[in-house]
Design brief:
alpha/beta, about 140 residues
């Protein structure tokens, strides 16, 4: 269902937010479209109630073809800066081009920015492994 396009772009963002909550994120929220500077979903994780980090997510509801292009990386970096995020994820229902994968590696190495790519299969695996709540607001 995620890949078939039976979910809206906003619904996909809500799905990603729900996954973050199941992974232990607190204060998960979807950025309103008019305030979106490159991050669609923000979540705060806490380790031992001492160390906190902010995760910014760029959510791309795509079919497997065409793959997500490298321009999304720059979009996420802008969002990470705007939200003072420590880590970035680009989550898609589809896949990534080799150019995008290489660009993420280059940016991470050159600039020290932490970005992870989560494709449709990895997203499905996260849902299966961690379950899912009914809504991102729970």
């Amino acid at each position: 269902e995620i890949r078939e396009g039976k979910i809206s772009d906003r619904g996909f963002e809500e799905l990603v937010a729900a996954v973050l909550k199941r992974l232990g994120a607190k204060d998960v929220h979807i950025i309103p479209r008019n305030l979106d500077k490159g991050a669609d979903v923000i979540g705060t994780f806490s380790i031992a109630d001492t160390f906190k980090f902010v995760l910014a997510v760029q959510a791309k509801h795509y079919q497997p073809v065409p793959p997500v292009g490298k321009w999304v990386v720059d979009q996420l970096i802008n969002g990470m800066q705007a939200e003072s995020a420590d880590l970035g994820w680009i989550v898609t229902s589809g896949s990534y081009s080799e150019e995008t994968i290489d660009y993420v590696s280059e940016v991470c190495e050159r600039d020290g920015i932490k970005i992870e790519l989560i494709d449709g299969e990895q997203l499905a695996a996260l849902i299966v492994a961690n379950g899912l709540t009914n809504s991102a607001s729970e």
